[in-house]
Design a protein that fits this description.
This protein is mainly α and about 350 residues long. It has 14 helices and 2 strands. The protein has helices spanning about 1-10, 15-30, 35-60, 65-80, 90-105, 115-140, 150-165, 165-180, 185-200, 205-210, 230-235, 245-265, 270-290, 295-310, and strands spanning about 215, 225. The chain has a two-stranded antiparallel ribbon with strand order 1-2.
Length: about 350
């Protein structure tokens, strides 16, 4: 154990791997079930140290050192996830979440076609670990202390699939969650984002991202949308101050969907109509929320508004300096009844 810690500290990864192999032999020879758990805890503890090191090196932009330490970190994660014994829900969940976060660190955005190889590899490893978690939860009694934690696993898998461009699998997982927990805002948000990302290759999906998709029957017998979409999401959360950021995310993305859909149109009149909708999405938001969610959100709205103006052939002057009149746009509350639901963000432990 001490040798392994020393090799990790000095980045002697070949010797660290040799030490892990020797530790595995000692653990297997002992025949003690507790030894396997102890060994996993050793790996996890050292893994946490490497995680802190990776975070620091990324903040300091030390690219070469980061690549080397990340390789060692990956070695630990794979060693933990591949162990047949000694793992519990917490250790495997940490591995899957860490793989996902590593993938996000290499993910510069721009869709699956522009995804860095390292990001793709880490997302795939996160999914593989999540699949094991779900399998163990089914076959091992008491493996999960709370069944709701499994929703977090499915949500993380859906996020990984979205980043990999496998939108069908992502929506399937999210739909499975929403059939049981339709009011989970974090899951609804991910579903709308998935449909929006899908719109890059299927422009008609921008409409679904705004209006929602699929329906389900409530216990009272009503037919409601399974996936809200950005439009309904803004209405659902508009009265909850704790979800102010979610409200602005929904309104911003509704405008962005209209703009991106306009880009895909070759017919000038269709394009003009969609750009007008995008413009009104923002001006109405400014009418009902003059501060536009604060400086950071205002900056994002302003940048998007300028992009819309450019596509309209106008001078990109940005947001109106004065609050527009309420008659200039349609209230999002007219799209669906105003509701202040008892909603909670999805289970903790699932990364964005």
């Amino acid at each position: 154990k001490l040798a392994l810690r020393g090799y990790v500290a000095t980045e002697a990864l070949d010797k660290a791997e040799q030490s892990m192999n020797e530790l595995e032999k000692l653990a297997n020879a002992s025949g003690d079930a507790n030894t396997a758990e102890t060994l996993t805890r050793i790996y996890v503890a050292l893994g946490h140290e490497l995680q802190e090191q990776v975070t620091r090196l990324r903040q300091e932009n030390k690219t070469e050192e980061l690549a080397k330490v990340s390789k060692g970190f990956e070695l630990f994660l794979e060693r933990i996830s591949s162990r047949e014994s000694g793992n519990d829900f917490r250790s495997l969940n940490w591995v899957a979440d860490t793989f996902y976060n590593l993938g996000s660190g290499y993910d510069a955005g721009g869709g699956a076609s522009k995804l860095a190889p390292q990001a793709k590899s880490y997302y795939e490893k996160s999914i593989k670990t999540d699949e094991r978690l779900l399998a163990d939860a089914k076959k091992k009694k008491g493996f999960v202390s709370d069944e709701n934690l499994l929703f977090g696993i499915q949500l993380r898998m859906a996020r990984s699939y979205r980043r990999l461009g496998d939108f069908n699998k992502a929506i399937s997982l999210l739909s499975d969650i929403l059939k049981q927990k339709p009011m989970l805002v974090e899951v609804q948000r991910e579903a709308a984002q998935t449909l929006q990302d899908w719109g890059a290759t299927r422009p008609d999906f921008y409409t679904l991202a705004i209006r929602g998709a699929k329906t389900y029957k409530t216990p009272e017998g009503r037919q409601e949308k399974l996936i809200w979409g950005w439009g309904t999401m803004a209405v659902k959360v508009q009265s909850d101050k704790k979800l102010a950021d979610t409200f602005h995310e929904a309104r911003y993305n509704q405008a962005k969907c209209h703009m991106e859909q306009a880009r895909s149109k070759t017919d000038a009149s269709e394009k003009s109509v969609l750009l007008a909708k995008a413009e009104k999405d923002i001006t109405f938001t400014q009418t009902v929320r003059p501060d536009l969610g604060g400086p950071d959100w205002r900056k994002k709205y302003d940048s998007l508004f300028k992009a819309i103006q450019q596509l309209q052939g106008k001078k990109p002057t940005g947001l109106p300096s004065e609050k527009p009149t309420a008659s200039s746009a349609r209230s999002p509350a007219k799209a669906a009844p105003s509701v202040k639901p008892a909603v909670k963000p999805a289970v903790a432990g699932a990364s964005k």
